[in-house]
Amino acid sequence: MSTSRTRLSLDDALNAAIQLHQAGRLQDAENVYRQVLAVQPRHPEALHLMGLCAHQKGDHATAAKLIRTALEIQPAHPAAHNSLGAVQLALGQAGAALEALQRAVELSPAYAEAWTNRGIALGELRRSDEALASYDEALRLGYDNPLLHFNRARLLQLLGRLEEALGAYGRTLAQVPGYREAWHNLGVLQEKLGRLTEAQTSYERAVQLEPEAPYTRGHLLFARLRRCDWKGLEALGSAILRAVDAGRAAAEPFPLLAIDSTPRQQLQCARAYAADKFPAGMALPPIPAPAAVPQRLKLAYLSADFHDHATAHLIAEVFERHDRSRFELIALSFGPPRDDPWRRRLVAAFDRFEEVGDLTDREIALRARELGVHVAIDLKGYTQDCRTGIFACRAAPIQVNYLGYPGTLGVPWMDYLIADPVVVPVQDREHYAEKIAALPDCYQPNDSTKPIAGAVPSRAELGLPEEGFVFCCFNNNYKITPDVFALWMRLLARVPGSVLWLLAAPPEAMEALRREAVRLGIAAERLVFAERVPLAEHLARHARADLFLDTFHYNAHTTASDALWAGLPVLTRLGHSFSGRVATSLLTAADLPELIAADAAEYESLAVALAGDPARLAGLRQRLAAQRGRCALFDCGRYTGKLEAAFEAMWRRHMAGEAPAHLDIV
User: Fold this and answer.
1) Closest Cα partner for 417 from 335, 244, 353, 431?
2) In 266-413, at which residue ranges do the beta strands (DSSP E only) sit?
3) What ranges cover the TPR repeats (predicted)?
4) Quick check: 107 and 81 in contact, CB under 8 A?
5) Per the count of CB atoms within 10 A, which of 86, 160, 613, 644 is most buried?
6) Cα diameter, the chain
7) Element (H or E) spanning 392, and its range?
8) Which CATH architecture has domain 297-448+643-664?
């Protein structure tokens, strides 16, 4: 066969393979690419496109090898550089991907797809402004592609340019109405904007498109809880738990805390989520053991909430009380810069306070290593604005899950969880991936310097009746589930003239609660909603309530300790998971065990009994006032000492070459 005829045959074969490839027949296309390579092993386009096939089939390592070989033969191949960048993005190698994509646009400045992929790489590296400029260049070149609009929307969302992000998602869905992930992300954005009804509709659309899609049902569940839209809630929750039991990623871990899930199911959910989000291989090289015992342990607290936030309200005094002769305190803040009194107080409490929000997870982990951190403490867990990937990279020899998230992270690289014998009983430790560091009193710190405003508004000023018993619950409304609300309505029926005082919620949620009250035979006006006010004022108005009623599956946490600090008795029911046992832990540490009910029936009976016995209730208030200055719950000095003992015990094991183990601090 002549050379020209061979080239013609190869060209025909390659064109046929490309047609098969474009038709989605990947294996058939790959077979033809192999035939071309059998004749010409160094055919750059066949190597490139066969690599692209491997990428599309999920074999990214093989894809990278093939495309690199093609580029060794033909370095000035912009499409191959673009493909290599896409493969490296799939492998989690954003830095390497950026190099490849930069080369693609240098070789072909009008290559809009490469500009788009370059934007994705820059976004992964948290170089957000550059990423947006790259996307905008693709738009300028006339690239009207749903992937471009989708990724640009995600970036605008990250940058807080939420209305612009809405428009970009709209353009995505106008082109691909069945784009399930775009509907999901749109729901997340709408939820952040407070458009809960629209968010719920978007999640429902995503579930219709792909019922078993990861996480969307969990978001739909949580949106319904936030709206107090309980129609079909039990069926949805049951479906999610069945999927969790089967090992599927039906929900992110947080929504499970608000429904009747077990510690085992919460562990299953966390493991599935972590396996998806934090693949093996993220960890940096091992940290060498120190040559000698350090004079001071370096503790790094990592959070987005070093400002006027519930976590800061709890822990600020702990930071101030840490023994500086034994500990050096570092804050790594990855939330937006703030300037409020709480932020200023927290900055003053640390030896070093660094803003790291613009860094990648890997860069923050490297910074912690550079600072010589011994114990890295995650104050976020799986909550809003978390950066769990920092810990997946292994930021410090010891890593601790503490305070922000009441449950397990389900990962092998979080060494310890700070808990207590109530929130995590010994028999439940098997359902936590971390080893338990059990403090002797309560896992939750409390600030014994929190001021309570001197002026207490009248009942009338607060919208409450002048006479009658006031039940209250200042928990977020997503913690209110149909079972506990029905019980509360029975209390109102059994205690004439009583009202239920709740924290203001989204308008549709308040209206839904009023409708449900009426359906259960209770006048809507017997529900009163308290607007959000500064903490000192909020604490003061507790004086106008008679009894705080806790929610069941996700207890009052900060809200319970706030009530107790303000002198208001809290009634709870002992739950079976961390999030449902916190108020029991708080009441135990406050020496008020008689306010812990074993089940819903006892909870209801006790609430009615207290409402009908003013002397008994007054006695509880007097005990609270007398014990506030000396009970374990509000003894921050004692608490800090026990927490420090836990950190030191962790470090001793590490220095001895021993693996993390359960610790019972005495």
Assistant:
1) 431
2) 297-303, 327-333, 352-355, 375-378, 398-401
3) 44-77, 78-111, 112-145, 180-213
4) yes
5) 86
6) 108
7) helix 389-392
8) 3-Layer(aba) Sandwich (3.40)
Range list for CATH 3.40.50.2000 in the chain: 470-634
Query: Tokens 């009976």 correspond to what residue?
Result: 605
Question: What pTM value is reported for the model?
Answer: 0.92
CA distance readout (Å), 650 to 298, 435, 654: 13, 10, 6
What is the pLDDT, as a whole number, of residue 279?
Answer: 84
With contact defined as beta carbons under 8 Å apart, do 583 and 550 qualify? yes
Amino acid in position 504: A
Q: How high is the pLDDT of residue 130? A: 97
Query: Residues of CATH 3.40.50.11380 domain(s) within the chain?
Result: 297-448+643-664
Strand runs (DSSP E) across 491-639, as ranges? 499-503, 527-530, 547-549, 570-573, 596-597
Burial of 163 (0-12, 13-18, 19+ CB in 10 A): exposed
Contact 571, 595 (CB under 8 A): yes
Q: Does domain 470-634 have CATH number 3.40.50.2300?
A: no
- pLDDT in the model for residue 4: 46
DSSP of 144-204, one letter per residue? --HHHHHHHHHHHHHTT-HHHHHHHHHHHHHH-TT-HHHHHHHHHHHHHTT-HHHHHHHHH
Say if CB 472 and CB 547 are below 8 A apart. yes
Residue (of 526, 525, 532, 545) closest to 456 by Cα position = 545
* Residue numbers in the chain where pLDDT is lower than 70: 1-8
What confidence tens digit (pLDDT) does each residue in 524-565 have? 999 999 999 999 999 999 999 999 999 999 999 999 999 999
Instruction: Tell me how far apart the alpha carbons of residues 79 and 66 are, in angstroms, rounded to a whole number.
Output: 14
Return the structure tokens found at 628. Answer: 């506030």
> Rounded CA gap, 640 and 646, in Å?
10
